[in-house]
Amino acid sequence: MLKRFQKKRIQNKIELNLKNRDISNLNDSVVTMGYLVDEDMFQNFEKLFEVSKEMGLKDKNVKIFTFMNVKKKLPSLRQNQINNKEFSWKGIIQNQNANEFLELPFDILIGFYQEKNDYLDLMMTKSKAKFKVGFEGGDCRVSDLIIDVDPLKTNDFKRELIKYLRVLNKIS
C-alpha cells in the first residue's frame, strides 16, 4: 500500500517537474556532462568517460551518479550513489549528494537506463541539466533526445550520441 502511494507521489512530482522545466538553454554547446546510471544494469564507468573524451570533454567536466535498487536500506561509502530507500513516501530525495548532483547545470545529462524507472525518471526531471538524453524503453517525456541502441553496446551508443550531437551543433 505504501509503495503504491509512493509511486503515485513520484509520478505527480515527475509531472510537476516536466511542467516547470526551463528549456531556454536547450541549444547550448556541450562543455559539462553528467550521467545518471542504473548500476544494476551497467557498472563499467570507464567506458562512459571514454565516450566523453571522444567528444572532447575533460574528465573534470564529467560526473557520474548511480542508482541501485535494494531490498533493505544499506549504508554505502560511495558518495555518488543513491538507492530506492532514499526516496521518502512523498517522493522526496533524502540524499544530499544526489540533490547536489541534480542542482548542477550540466550542458547534457544522460540517463543511462533502459527500462521505465520512476526513481531515475524523477531524478532526470528534477535535474537542472540543459539537455537530456535517454534510451528507448524509458519514459520519452523526460528526455530531449532518445537513442535507440542497446546501452550496453557502448561503441554503438558513442557513435549514435556523437552523430546526433553534431547534427544538433552541440559538439564540433
Task: Describe the protein.
- The protein has 172 residues and is α/β, with parallel strands linked by helices.
- It has a single domain, classed as Rossmann fold.
- 34% of the residues lie in helices and 16% in strands.
Given the structure, what is the number of helices?
Answer: 5
Strand content: 15-25%
Report the sheet with the most strands, covering strand number, pairing sense and barrel closure. 6 strands, parallel
Please provide the count of β strands.
6
H/E series: HEHEEHEHEEH
Find the structural class using helix and strand composition.
alpha/beta
Whole-number total of structural domains: 1
Helix content: 25-40%
Q: Summarize model confidence as the mean pLDDT.
A: 90
CATH topology: Rossmann fold
Radius of gyration, taken over Cα atoms and rounded to an integer in Å: 15 Å
Give the overall shape: globular
Spatial sequence of strands, sheet with the most strands: 3-2-1-4-5-6
- Low-pLDDT runs: none
Under the CATH scheme, the architecture is: 3-Layer(aba) Sandwich
Amino-to-carboxy terminus distance: 50 Å
CATH class bucket: Alpha Beta
